[in-house]
Amino acid sequence: MIELQNVVPRPLQSLGIRPDSTVFNTRCQFQAGKDHLILAPSGKGKSTLLHILYGLRKDWDGDVLWDGRSIRNWSSAEWTTVRSGRCTMVYQDLRLFPEQSAFDNIRINRDLAPHWDDHQIEEHAQTLGIDHLLGAKAGTLSYGQRQRVAILRALSQTFNWLFLDEPFSHLDAENTELALQLIRATVREQEAALLLVSLGEDYGLQDAERFIL
Q1: CA-based diameter of the chain, in Å?
Q2: How many beta carbons lie within 10 A of that of residue 213, not counting itself?
Q3: What are phi and psi of 143, to 5 degrees?
Q4: How far apart are CA 42 and CA 60, in angstroms?
Q5: What is the pTM of this model?
């Protein structure tokens, strides 16, 4: 379980946290093995929230507990352990290495905590329609193609938590559905929790617990 206790990102303090937020400046819980959907317009802290949970930001007040332990003073080694086996993320800005191939970008996560072998990566890339691009440098791909590479990279490792930061923004309806099917199948296979932030689309996650920022 991940619990937030009156968390307020400092960059948002001057803008004000909306009084009906069910995440910031209140207590909320994200449950292990469950789907969670966080809805908010642009500029309300969706990426900031995921970066806090992933240990990438320190500019916030309150506390975050992972399984009852505060993350406030975790060491780099502790975060490395979490990111290499317990938690994985699709960033809004993707954070691929442009000079490396799509395949090598995917392998970066997989090699830390293997869940898929090379053959499975190729199979899932075919499902998402990018198997013919695995040898291409990531920087030469369209944004939608890179989004699919980033999704495969996140899913290729073992994880208990999957964080998704608007991962379908440049995908059409057909490719979004294909990616969603693969995401949900992999999450179920690993008995993991999913936490997706969205501008408003629920992407068919009708049974997910909903939050607003």
Answers
A1: 50
A2: 21
A3: -65, -40
A4: 19
A5: 0.95
Query: Phi-psi bin for 132: left (phi > 0), alpha (psi -120 to 50), beta?
Result: alpha
| Distance, CA of 76 to CA of 24 (rounded, Å) | 25
Tell me how far apart the alpha carbons of residues 121 and 103 are, in angstroms, rounded to a whole number. 8
Q: How far apart are CA 116 and CA 139, in angstroms?
A: 24
Rounded CA separation 182/187 (Å): 9
HSE value, Cβ hemisphere, 13 Å, CA-based, for 139: 4
CA–CA distance, 122 with 156 (Å, rounded to integer)? 11
How many residues appear in the chain? 213
Per-residue pLDDT in tens (0 to 9) along the chain, 213 residues: 999 999 999 998 887 788 899 999 999 999 999 999 999 888 889 999 999 999 999 999 999 999 999 999 999 999 999 999 999 999 999 999 999 999 999 999 999 899 999 999 999 999 999 999 999 999 999 999 999 999 999 999 999 999 999 999 999 999 999 999 999 999 999 999 999 999 988 898 889 999 999
Cα dist from 187 to 9, 130, 201, whole Å: 29, 21, 20
Q: Which of 203, 192, 211, 99 is nearest to 154 (CA)?
A: 192
Residues 161 and 31: their CA atoms lie apart, in Å, by: 10
The CA distance from 155 to 157, in Å, is 6
Query: How far is residue 202's CA from residue 37's CA, in Å, rounded to a whole number?
Result: 7
DSSP category for residue 173: H
